[in-house]
Automatic annotation (TrEMBL):
Residues 16-154 form the HTH marR-type domain. Gene3D superfamilies: Winged helix-like DNA-binding domain superfamily/Winged helix DNA-binding domain. SMART domains: HTH_MARR. GO terms for biological process: response to stress. GO terms for molecular function: DNA-binding transcription factor activity. Signal peptide: none annotated. This is HTH marR-type domain-containing protein. PROSITE patterns: HTH_MARR_2.
Amino acid sequence: MTTAAVRSRKRPSRTTPDLAIEIRILISIIAKFNLRAMEQRLNEALPGMSVLQYGLLRRLADEPCTLSELSNHMLLTPSTLVPAVDKLEREGYLVRGKDPNDRRRAPLIVTEAGRRALQAIPPIHDDDAFIRSVEVLGTERAKRLRALLHQLLMAMTDDPALVEALLANRPERKCRG
């Protein structure tokens, strides 16, 4: 191998960091547009409910979890979750339960009012901007994009099982609740 070839292998291409930055910016902008659309849907159905609160209710509707378990499942710190959980509790959408087998555990349980709130939020419709944008790509290109994003996500983590669990919209391990 020539000296130039060895040097080129050691030095990362300047193109890769530039591409990574541009991809990061594009993903951030897409995420912001999606967040804005979700906030609008929530505001129309349930004024005052945040996307985080909605996500918590959806997660807890399947199975009660403690704050710590939610933190692990949602990849958020407990200090981020506490204000949202407190507001949901004040609004009557969830209650802090008691675990008869472990007095230290306080599973969060969605109330009937919380279930009604979830039903009041319309599902994403075909006129959603993101759905329309994916349709413009066409099925084959959309599938390729999905595969590339999945590959990128898997390359970013040491815990592929957690990524797969998050993608499947299920916890990596069940809450004890």
